[in-house]
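WARN no homologs supplied; continuing
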Amino acid sequence: MNTISTPKRAKRLLGMGAALCLALAFATTLAAAADYKLGTQDKLTIRVVEWQTVEGAFRDWSSVSGDYTVGPSGKLSLPFVGETEAAGKTTAEIAETIGKTLQDKFGLSDRPEASVEVAQFRPFYISGDIQSPGQYAYAPDLTVLKAVSIAGGMRRGADGARTERDLINAEGSHAVLSDEQLRLMVTQARIDAELAGKTEFAAPKDIASLPGVDGMVANETAIMASRQKKLTLRLQALDNLKGLLESEIVSLGQKAETQKRQVELARKELSGIDTLAQKGLVVNTRVLSTERSIAEMEGKILDLETATLRAKQDVSKAEQEAIDLRNNAESELAVERQKTVGELNAVTLKLGMQKGLIAEAGGTASAAAGIEQPTSFVLVRKGSDGKSKEITAAEDTSILPGDVIKVVRSGSPLVQ
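OK structure emitted
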């Protein structure tokens, strides 16, 4: 977290205020005001700043700010904030939750301000009797007619060879995506095991018996072992250094005690010599020599105490480095898990699309014959209860992110 100094406060305040206004205007345009409800695969850009009244400066929460994706569970995972429900909420509600959570967690007198904007909407999908069915990026004010245009328009006909080729391509893509889905599921299982502090993991039960999964588990186990070995060796090296420094501290303490005893003996000797010198029985040079020896020994004691303090500081540094190593390892795993979950969710959606393409590959005979047929549109939309429902649509029906559009000609099979 970076703090902006007071001399630059006014200029930064104006600049950040203008940037915030632009960000809010952009978010409003993209999300059709603040009423847009977030969902899985929506990508958000989050910026968090805090005005510190006492210091009169801004604090930039750079460790929280960044780009995030709503996961398949409908949650956002942010540093310090943790997992928070995002599906079904607006960007304004998410921003309020972030600011309140940070204030409560750290006991801040001033609540941090969060700017949350939709950087990229979750895609929409279109299938059926169109030229290029598939997944497409969502844009505001999208209608069924616009979506059909984006997908290349209605299917213009194809011969049997084209239909067969489309089927082969769809089946090949499905096979590749199925393999990728298994790999990501195994990777997620490995990351969850590492975050739980385990040294071993197993594939999820529902895929454990599938072909190729054992090899994937072996690869992820090797990655897990390598990372844990690297971390263990670095922690062990710091622990060894700490042990050496603690031994040095003990040794320096013993040397200091020895020097102190020698100083006491020298002082006793000096006391006796001083008495004899006053009586003229010894020369003053012997007194001076003894005093010089005492001063040198006291100087050595100070050097030993200074060396002891330095060794204790080095012990503290080694302990802090060990803590940082563990925290960094956990943070890297959390980021990797978020990325893996996002990829897994995208692959799962693409698999559903490929199944639809395979199902419809045989429904082009009428189009190939050039027969004009009535066209109907059906939207498959997930409701607030998490259940999907079908909606009969027209060309001017508005499309929402995540919708699946089924384009059906009379006489062709409806993609399931």
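The first strand starts at residue 2 and ends at 3.
OK
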